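> example.struct
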């Protein structure tokens, strides 16, 4: 009789565990958006593109954490000839490591998710200076962007099907990205807003 009770208890435990909501979730996402602010608050625009992966762990029905990794490419889309430090069309690539805390409004197939957290960014594709007016300028061929930067990522998404969601991701740059080399002034802060599609399972 004792063995039967142990077997029944084991089966109940297994069934209840399998009935609970899955805690781990893979998230693959692609997004494209706009640079909201580029240099010294002058409002220069451009385009951004993001492709990434996040591994979410839901520790309660409404709360989860999601570390991840993403490749973010940005291209400034408007020339600014009034800068005298070799400014032109700039393109950069970053390897981002976000760590998001997320709140889910539900656990069904359709719900909203709000997230926020820090992003550690490493510049993997750096643009260089070139001064048209002075081909012998010491700035020529020097990198424009620092290797490491820190940002914040607010995000909102809507889960509209079992494995798919759409949303908006912001990137707030907290550190001056500009590599001055002792020859320039001012700063570069790349803030962006991206529309994102995600596949999760």
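> example.seq
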């Amino acid at each position: 009789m004792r063995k039967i009770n142990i077997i029944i208890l084991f089966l109940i435990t297994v069934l209840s565990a399998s009935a609970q909501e899955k805690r781990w979730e893979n998230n693959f996402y692609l997004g494209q958006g706009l640079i909201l602010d580029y240099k010294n608050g002058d409002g220069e625009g451009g385009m951004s593109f993001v492709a990434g992966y996040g591994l979410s762990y839901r520790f309660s029905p409404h709360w989860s954490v999601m570390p991840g990794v993403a490749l973010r490419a940005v291209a400034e889309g408007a020339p600014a000839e009034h800068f005298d430090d070799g400014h032109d069309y700039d393109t950069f690539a970053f390897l981002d490591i976000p760590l998001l805390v997320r709140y889910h409004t539900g656990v069904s197939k359709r719900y909203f998710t709000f997230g926020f957290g820090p992003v550690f960014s490493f510049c993997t594709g750096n643009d260089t200076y070139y001064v048209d007016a002075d081909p012998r300028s010491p700035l020529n061929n020097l990198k424009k962007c620092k290797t490491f930067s820190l940002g914040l990522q607010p995000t909102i998404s809507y889960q509209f099907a079992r494995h798919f969601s759409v949303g908006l991701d912001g990137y707030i740059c907290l550190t001056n990205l500009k590599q001055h080399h002792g020859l320039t002034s001012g700063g570069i802060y790349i803030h962006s807003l991206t529309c994102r599609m995600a596949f999760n399972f």
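> remarks
Residues 10-20, 78-86 have pLDDT under 50 and may be disordered.
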